[in-house]
Amino acid sequence: MEKLLDVENLWVKFPSRQGVFDAVRGVSFSLGRERLGIVGESGSGKSMTGRAILRLIRSPGIVEADHIKLDGVNLLAKTEKEMRAVRGQRISMVMQDPKFSLNPVTTIGDQIIEAYRLHNKASKADAYAKSIEMLEAVSIRDPERVMRAYPHEMSGGMGQRIMIAMMLIPNPEILIADEPTSALDVSVQRQVLDIMDKLVKERGMGLIFISHDLNLVADFCDRVLIMYAGRIVEVCEADKLHEAKHPYTRGLLNSLPRLDAPRDRLEVLQRDPAWSTAPSVSGQI
Amino acid sequence: MNMLEINGLNVWFGTARDRVDAVKGATFDVAKGQSFGLVGESGSGKSTILRAITGLAPTWSGSIKVAGETVEHKRHKSFFKTVQMVFQDPYASLHPRHSVDQVLGETLHLHGFKDIDNRVVKLLDDVGLGQKFRFRYPHQLSGGQRQRVAIARALAPEPTLLLLDEPTSALDVSVQAEILNLLADLRAEHGLTYLMVSHDLSVVGHMCDRLAVMKDGEIVEIMDVAALQGMQAKHPYSRQLLEASV
């Protein structure tokens, strides 16, 4: 498979008073035109991996890697100005909480139009029409009203769909979605995923889907990386996730309550210190 | 005997043009010792029912009976000894500048207990935290530990009815399992009655005996968990919800 993105030996470090804290420790993986899931608990470094690709980790945080290649070009060698042409245009990112990623004092319409016109030469009227079309594509009812509204007038689900619309409008090659649906209801979740799925398929995009929800990832992605304490502990095909072998993955799967297999007590994950010291598994194709 | 009886409960916010009817004619009852789940999507009014019971949503009509006694709009002090609530987000529901000891101690003091010191120790043991957490501040605790503190605080006045508003939705699945086990143990030990709100059908399926499915402020179906597990939902909306979550 053609590699859109190739990451080799990625480290994210945060110097602190107690010494250097390694949030991501030597992770390697690559992404083709596929849906790649990254799962793990909070603090496992999955979000940091996503941010590090876009070089969004602020000082004093340090990103180190042998390379992060987008179509063969190393992103780490780019200047900050060149990076700005990558962000949004070629790789875009949907963050976890729409409440913090939308500008609270600007209408939604203005924000989407801004995102579009920053990357495309278009008149305001065209951008408006395109924005309405994108909002419809993420199944928002009454897009004209939403264009005039401010973020606080939107529910969480709508906010997240607006973010997805905004991120997809420049037509990027890679979309990094960091827990895009964890703030949403199951029914809405499905819709949002279907929208992302359709867009990924139609446009041949690569998708990195970061989530803590194992079932969702097993259902939605093609390939899954399982992260624990900053390392990849297991890589598997998404439809074979339930046959995963690593005790950590097994533990996570067993701790989920299931409707079809009721139990009196849920299994509690027993952590083995060896998991965090074992070398990272490569997720390269 | 029914621990909680709710009859024709309406809750609304705002007046005239801006009026939003969050809950419309909700009717259900929860037997003593039972665990009852409320499911539905966000905005369906499930949390609002809990807030109306505790008095956090003051504009309601209909009847709420707790342990056979009708709840008035102005609640008597004894009400809060019977009914307590655990909130969704353990990061927001604890005072950032109060230690665990202060949080529990103040609650016990407000409820007029004398042997506060012993009770704090016991509460911490009950929720599986132990002594070493007693003088910590919320930022020194993980999400699961904070939720344990929030549960300990709710248990402080020795309530019989516990309202759980998405108690695990902010937590990781591995931590969720610990908290759900803890809640199940506490219910067995203290003979508690639970009214639990969740958007996760499998969590409700695990924790509850009966459940009500809500949509747009109305209860569309009340069923047993056995029916849920057997995928025997009758209303089209609950079937849709069930299919989406399997």
What's this entry about, in short?
The complex is a heterodimer of chains A (285) and B (246). Helices cover 35% and strands 24% of the residues of chain A. Chain A is of the alpha/beta class and 285 residues long.
Account of the protein in words:
The complex is a heterodimer of chains A (285) and B (246). By secondary structure, chain A is α/β, with parallel strands linked by helices. Chain A has a domain at 98-171. In chain A, 35% of the residues lie in helices and 24% in strands. Chain A has a 6-stranded mixed beta sheet, sandwiched between helices. In chain A, strands 1, 2, 4, 5 and 6 form a 5-stranded antiparallel beta sheet that branches. In chain A, a hairpin with a 2-residue loop joins strand 1 and strand 2. In chain A, helix 5 packs across helix 7 (156-168). Chain A is globular, with a radius of gyration of 19 Å. The N and C termini of chain A lie close together (8 Å). The model of chain A has no long low-confidence stretch (mean pLDDT 87). Chain B is of the alpha/beta class and 246 residues long. Chain B has a single domain, classed as Rossmann fold. Chain B contains 9 helices and 10 strands. In chain B, the strands form 2 sheets. In chain B, strands 6-7-8-3-9-10 form a 6-stranded mixed beta sheet, with helices on both faces. In chain B, strands 2-1-4-5 form a 4-stranded antiparallel beta sheet, covered by helices on one side. In chain B, helix 6 (173-190) links the parallel strand 7 (161-165) and strand 8. The longest helix of chain B has 18 residues, at 173-190. Chain B is globular, with a radius of gyration of 18 Å. In chain B, 45% of the residues are buried. Chain A binds chain B through residues 41-42, 155-157, 184-190, 212-214, 251-252, 255-260, 262-269, and chain B through 41-43, 143, 172-178, 180-181, 184, 199-203, 205-207, 225, 228-229, 240-242, 244-246.
